[in-house]
Design brief:
The protein is α/β, with parallel strands linked by helices. The protein has seven helices and seven strands, in the order E-H-E-H-E-E-H-H-E-H-E-H-H-E. A seven-stranded mixed sheet has the order 3-2-1-4-5-7-6, with helices on both faces. It is 42% helix and 18% strand. It is found in: Cytoplasm; Nucleus. This is Calmodulin-lysine N-methyltransferase.
Length: 210
Amino acid sequence: MFRSKRVIELGSGYGLAGLTIAATTEALEVVISDGNPQVVDYILHNINTNSGAFGETRVKPMKLHWNEKEVSNLSHTFDVIVASDCVVDDVSSQSIETTYSPLTRGKKSLCYELKAKSTFFKEFHKDLAQVTELLLKKPGPSEAIFFSPKRGNSLDKFLEEIKDNGLLFSITEIYDTEIWNRHQQLMNGDESWPGYEKDHCYPLLIRITR
């Protein structure tokens, strides 16, 4: 899947997925990106620390904000995009009013702040979908591989943005026997993960293509 391919990880945190791909798959290049400059410094440290494991694979960190112009010089250049847990919990303005109005009478600033967060979530999903379309290579085969829980209607709203950007997607629930069995254990009374529930905790596999 990754051999001889150009790969970018979005919202990577400290870059575990990207580092693993670089060390084990003979990818041509792996770019490990995040929007936080301090985190990007940590990524660089992790790359330098593990450089002996990468063979001929080029590995580099990148500060990448999904709505900024620096994305443009990478347009349509990656064979594979990977990301995990990049779809955030969404809150609609209507649900904010229904849920919080009894608690916020006389506190309009809090209502405005909550509605602003709802707008942020909408733009967040829009920016992630747009940068996915922008980075996927064309012409030629390319795909984005995301892992994310549903989180209410958050994943659905993100996938609506994916469709609006002219991309296709598929969702797979059971993609690894060991992970699925662990999920079943947690759903059936295993208390080793307090508060575990499927909607917010179980990662679905989303594959996005042109």
